[in-house]
Amino acid sequence: MRWGVLVESLRGKLSWLSGEAAFVDHLQTQLDDATRVLHDAATEIAALDLYHHDHSAVQDKLQSIGLRVNQAASEARHLINKTKSHYITEGRSLPQEIASQLSNLELEAESAVAKMEDEHQEAKRARTIRFEYHRDVESVQAWIQSAESKVQDKSVDPHKLKEFLQEIHCEIGSVTDQLERVTRHGHMICQRTSNQSERELVANTVASLTEQLQQVRNWLEDKKAQVGDSLESWQLFIQLYNSLRSWVERQRNFLSEPLKFATLPEARAKLQEYAAAVKDCKWANKQVSEMTAELAKIGQCSDVGPLTDKQAEMEQEKADVESSLKEVMALLQEMGEEWEQCERKSKDVAGWIEKTRQSLDNPQNKKRSLRDQLAAREKALADVTIQKTKLVMAMEKLQVHFRDRMCAEAQVSHENEQLQLRLGELQVAVKEDCKTLEACVHQMDAYQQEIQRLRQQMVGVEQQLRLVSSPTYSPRDRDKAVAEQNACRERIKAIQCKISARNERIKLLNQRGTPDTAPLDT
User: Fold this and answer.
1) Which CATH number fits domain 2-134: 2.60.40, 1.10.8, 3.30.750, 1.10.132?
2) How many CB atoms lie within 10 A of CB 207?
3) What is the rounded average pLDDT of the residues 25-36?
4) Alpha carbon of 323 to those of 252, 270, 319, 400: distances in Å?
5) Residues paired with 466 in a beta bridge
6) Which residues lie below 8 Å from residue 72, measured CB to CB, with a gap of 6+?
7) Residue 17 gets which letter from DSSP?
8) Highest mean predicted confidence (pLDDT) among 202-206, 248-252, 263-267, 501-505
9) Is the pTM of this model over 0.70?
10) pLDDT value at residue 317
């Protein structure tokens, strides 16, 4: 009986031990499986690329691994609880080895869950970092492009370009902060992403943006200096423009002054003023050249705006003024030359008048024959006409230059008129002398013709005297012959007296130069 009970007891214990051994074996298998699942989940968690560019794929994988981790952790907890309940039911404490395994399993399960939570947080952070990275990259790229277009824009004037540079200078600080954030986020992406091509792309992008931003800084500094120079050139151009504008206005006022002269020295003085004004055109041309140079400097980095029109306008106005000054100066030169010739001819005519008067009134001239005196006066009359023509032609040539704005006052005309009057007076006097001398010459010719006639008569009477004096003439009546001889002699004496009287008259005519008023008896 006792052996039977003992055997049954042993059989019961053996059965329990067999069951317990099977339980422990099964438990070990479950623990190994749970541990393996958690280890696999940990491996997958560790292999996750949370910074992969495909965030949706990362989220899907996270969700899949998370489900498996949660399930494995839940199963591990269930196994742990079931195992503890089993030993509690058995009224036994957990074996040390099993307790240690359960504790390790619990820790691994908790670690996997915590790790999964960390991975979720890190995924969110990765998404935020990648979002901020791309946002900042686009923002910095857009700003650099905008800044580059503004800095390199030559279609605006330097004042607008200066405003652009000031805007860029104010914005570059915040852009630099953005680029630092891009650099920091890019460095994190490069460190944590497993995609080599993406690492290279991000690194190149960061390096490129850094280089571009530095280039913008360099351009900004260079452009600041260029814009400063352009603004100085702009200001200098305006000063040159205003200076040239004032010069043009002064020259226009000078050109608008009436050109009236009383004397040749006054005309020459005005010519000198115009010569000085034309010489001053060199200064104006230099101003235009400097304006062109400043305009070229401005155009190197910006638009010249309205300055081109101002340049063209001023060049045209300067050219018009210069042309007018040269035209008037040429007219003044021609007028001065004509006036000088006119005065020279006036002096020549005045000298000729005095010389002619002195020559005609010279006592030595009185000793010349009346015919020579008459010829001299006739020549003088012809010369008077020539001298008048000279004065008229000289004055007409001079009058050609006396326009509305250029005219001489009455002095030169008055001098010409006075000379014309003097020539007229000389002409009248010479004409009177010619009339007198012509009358004298006519009388002399008449006396010489009478003397010729009387001499012919005397030749006839002398022949008659020789005839009546011949012994053969009236030999019978000598008294008649003597009477006729005496009559012939008386006639010869009378003729000789007449000839002498006419010779005396001719002599007196030559001496007096005035005709006889009482004719001689024939």
Assistant:
1) 1.10.132
2) 12
3) 72
4) 12, 17, 6, 21
5) none
6) 34, 37, 38, 41, 109, 112
7) H
8) 248-252
9) no
10) 92
